[in-house]
Amino acid sequence: MTTLLILPVGGCAAKIVSTAPPTIEPARAAVSPPPAGAPAGQVIAAGGRFTAALFDAATRSLVCLSPGELTIIGPDRAPRTVTLPGEAAAITGDGTGAAYLPGRGAVLTVDLAAGRVTETPVVGQDDTEFTAIARRFDGHLVLGSAGGVALTLAPDLTVSHRAAGFARVDGLAAVGDVTVVLDRAQTSVTELDAGGDAGLALRAGLGATRIASDPAGRILVTDTRGGQLLVFGVEPLIERQAFPVPDAPFGLTGSAELTWVSQSASNTVVGYDLSTGIPVEKVRYPTVRQPDSLAFDDASDTLYVVSGSGAGVQVIPEAGVT
Fold first, then answer.
1. Considering only CA atoms, which of 209, 125, 214, 206 is closest in space to residue 174?
2. Helices in the chain by DSSP H: which ranges?
3. Domains of the chain, start order
4. What's the pTM?
């Protein structure tokens, strides 16, 4: 909460105002019950408690993040593990065979084909706990920290710009050279321009948890506490759609045709068509337990549902066929 302290000095009042933003308890995914039926598609036994995932088009690989390691599942569906030099909270990629993760005071770059990890310290950030990462279309990386700072990096991974004032940077998503910051404790989204400066900020429901961008240039947010899918445009940041989604919506990814949202309280994933301006449900599938992370391969129309409880990775081919 904002604190106002008034001290009388020589008949005048000096005002000291704290800069800490007002916050709430961050929302979380529901603890999923055991699945009521068999998940759709195929389930790969990959036992990690995964917290994030992405699909890399160059290597045709799904990349799943769990504390301290990556699990890479290629076209042969055989998982292989890459050990990280420390825990990482997020992952992004360039679509050409590299993944990037925020380490403590550093950026971790993973060659997905070779399984090789390179750790590059961020100058002046030795002890910073980085919590989020995004890659803009111009190749610049943006890092978010537990201390509420978003850092835009130059190509040599030095800091080119700093935006502060967040309670914590919990997620980042890029559209073009614009980045949007998700702050769960403020349940807000904030636009960063191409220079890295903070611009418009908007409330994001009652308890936003996940953020992603899609091929159409939209910013997607799950409002888990409020039971909504939120859709934003950028330049300027504006909320364009808010649609009720029951059962604690959490996992999120966008594809060329549909937006995919997992319902963590019911082990379900739903594909919505956003093209009409009001989300329209097109497909629905039963999932593995705790469907916390989603990824999509547009070339094969394959949806990946990644469990956060160790229930494996679900592969749903031709997922968008209605």
1. 214
2. none
3. 35-316 (2.130.10.10)
4. 0.93
